[in-house]
Structure formats: C-alpha cells, structure tokens
Amino acid sequence: MESGKAARPLLSCAPMEAVRLMIVAGEASGDAHAAALVRALREAAPKLEFFGATGPLLRAAGVESIVRSDDLAILGLLEIARALPKFWRAYKLLKAAAIENKPAAVILVDWPDFNLKLARALHRRGLKIIYYISPQLWAWRSYRARSIAHNVDLLLSILPFEQEWYAERGIDQVEYVGHPLAGEVHARLDRAEFCRRNKLDPRRPIISLLPGSRRKEVERILPPMLEAAALISVRRPDVQFGIVVAPGRSSDEIRRIVRSQRATPEPLPSCLHIVSGQSCEALAASDVAAIASGTATLEAALLGTPMVVVYKESWVNWNTLGRLITVDHYGLVNLVAGERVATELMQDDLNGERLANELLSLLDAKRNEETRARLREESAKQTAGWMQ
Fold it and tell me: Which end of the chain has fewer surrounding CB within 10 Å, N or C?
C-alpha cells in the first residue's frame, strides 16, 4: 500500500501516541489520497486524532471537519475570484484551529494555491509542515519552489522524477514515497459481472467516458464526448457507451447534460449508460476510454485500458494559466512515462469528430492490443519503481 509507505516518514517526524494532527485536502483526488493516508497512519498508531479541511472520504475516515473542502472545489480564475470570500473564511478558520490545537504536524495534501499560503502562515508560527503530493512545479510556476524550501519541513513526492528536480534547486527535504495508486488499482468485478449489473452486452465493444470530477469540467468536457459517441454510433452501431460519474458529482448532473445534447445533428447512441461508483470496474471492462486529464488516466494505465486524454478549459483560463505550462505532456500517464503513450486532445483540439476518430482507431484490434501491451510494459516499470 503506497499510502502506508507515505505514512512511514510521517511516523518518524512526530510522536504518534495520543496526539493530534491537522490534515488539509481540497479536491476529490486529494481527499481520497488523504483518507488512505489517515487509515495507514491509524493502523500504525490507533490513538491518533485528526482535524482539518475534509472532503467526504476524510470525514468518513473520522477526521474532524473544521472546513468542508468539497464546498471549495472550484476551477478557474473567474470561479475562484467569485469564491474568494469563501476561501478567506476557510483560511482563517484553519489557521485559528491550528494555532489553538497546536498539532504535532500539519499535513497538507496537494491543493497548492491554498495550501502553500497556509504553510507559510503556520510555519511562521513554529508548526511542523509536511506536504504530501508535490505541487506540479516542474510543469508551471517553478518559482514556488522557494516557498517549499522556506515553509515545508518534509515534502513527500509521488512521481519518480520530482526528487531530482527539487535537488537540482538545492531543496533536499524531499522523500519519494511512490504513487498512492501503485498496487491499489483493482477492479472488483470482471467484465461479465460489470456488464450484467449495468445492462451491457459483454460481447459488444464498450467505450467509457470520464468527463472529470469538477462541475465546470463536466459541463465543458462531456458535450464533445457525447458528440463523439453520436458519431461513433453511426459508423459502429455495435458500440456501447458508459458515462462514469466521478465521486462528488451526481447522476442527475450527467442526465441534465445528456438531455441538452439531444438536439445534436446525430442522435445520441441508444446504448448510453450512466455508471456511478464503479470507475475502476468501468475502465477494466472497457475496450477504450476517453478520460479527462487527471488521476483517472493513471488508473486506466494501470488497468491496461487504451485511452484518449482530453481536457477543455474556459477561454480565459486556457489563454492565461494554460500558457504558463512548460511541459510537453498534459496527461499524468504521459508525464510519468516521459513520452506520449496516450493521445491527448486539449482545448480546441477536443471536438466530437477528432475524439470519435481517435476512439475508433483505438478500437482497431491490432492497435488496441499494441496499446495494451505498451501500457502493461510502462505500468510494470513504474509500479516496480513505486513499490521499492
């Protein structure tokens, strides 16, 4: 369990009996990784108490909620600007709680725009700051490495190249603990059982559509996915589609967007199913998938599912923040591999026709098997490194 590996350096940083730790996670993926970390720490030290900024999984893990971070899951400059009073209240509440409770350590999980500011304020107060899941400074905003150097006592890295990247900048308080997904991605159902439960035919091709976990992501990314599904169904009527609902999103949201697409030039496929709470199972059962850039691309890679990585931002965000990105790849699966193992369709490149063509190409038996073999090879290599 990689969360268990991440727990080991934490256990050496502070006394672990009958003490309180603060943990702050903002987005859905951070909430999941933080909850796994809390469970691993409690296995080693059952008397630990936690409080902080929580999503639903951290609350289910028994963490006292000072701030509900799922109310702050906002994407983009305009959305954040409108919500600044909410963020400011959350910041003040967490800062006050940390000062009052004097935790043995403050564990900050991803969420850099918020957490780096909190790290600065709390480190100045003498609190020990541990950052789990490095901000992607190697992709953009590399100047923030100064904040890590000055305000973070221990950075737990989950990607293999990050420790060296920080070392080149004179930052040595970094420990590589491996990705939380390594060894943890398993489908609970085989293809036959998944299809039985979701009214799909296991003998026919299946394409999964994963439009993301934030509301704005889904609203921007699902429509071109649905357009692609409509185009594919004309050329391949045998193909079935599953829209995978991310944690924190609802099936009703998905149905609303699907209903709004009924007026497209091509009718939506008759075999279009909404799948909730079964993302790994859907990916494992799928012949191919279209996936919003993020953690799910790594899950698909570990399961060996050929994919197209997609993303679409608002015009303002893409032409401001997007231009600051300095890496060659957007998808995590490609970043970890260091090469393009999955096609990426970003922003203006993401439209129904291009996505349909890419997915149909991946359905070709020869290319599908070659892609699966490449993903198996890359996953084995990376998992071996993560599990060391």
Answer: C
